[in-house]
Amino acid sequence: MQPGPVFGNMDKFVGLGVFVDTYPNEEKQQEAQKRRYSPGVQRVFPYISAMVNNGSLSYDHERDGRPTELGGCTAIVRNLHYDTFLVIRYVKRHLTIMMDIDGKHEWRDCIEVPGVRLPRGYYFGTSSITGDLSDNHDVISLKLFELTVERTPEEEKLHRDVFLPSVDNMKLPEMTVPLPPLSGLALFLIVFFSLVFSVFAIVIGIILYNKWQEQSRKRFY
Prior knowledge:
This protein is an alpha+beta fold. The protein has helices at residues 25-32, 153-160, 184-220, and strands spanning 3-4, 8-9, 14-21, 47-54, 71-74, 85-91, 94-100, 108-114, 116-117, 166-167. Helices cover 24% and strands 22% of the residues. The chain starts with a strand and ends with a helix. This is VIP36-like protein isoform X3.
């Protein structure tokens, strides 16, 4: 993990991000412009959201991650006198996020996304960042469990063949690798063969033109 602007982690990360956002940047900007969301699209903060990234997407802070959000829910986790819990479950390409924030030891659904493909060999981590509005949140514990799942040979092969995070029916931009600069020799050869081809084309054109003129004179006589 590398430090960065996405809740303390780097932008254009590779993997799954689950964010607990406590400040509505987009809503405050809308209010400053005297504009309001319709009730159907307005989100109430604090807000939990999820994002899958293959290293090509930037998290849009100005819009609170809305363009790349897989799903989300409101989670009122401020100033509570009991512990709150978040569970992230990933089984057979199915991502489920639930929360217990009412002190009743009952899970509530938050996010459910099928078709999530995550490679093996990744790491778990937590990070945070403080903006203009400061908050204090403590991570008391982080518990990890390996779930026993029965897979067919075909499912096992498909699971092994995942090399970059992705989501079915969601087009993620391909990672572009910059081409290395041309060496002096390669540049010389490209220019040289381009000139040779140009001269060859001109010579062929002159020959064809002379033949056409000759045939025209014969038809005239």
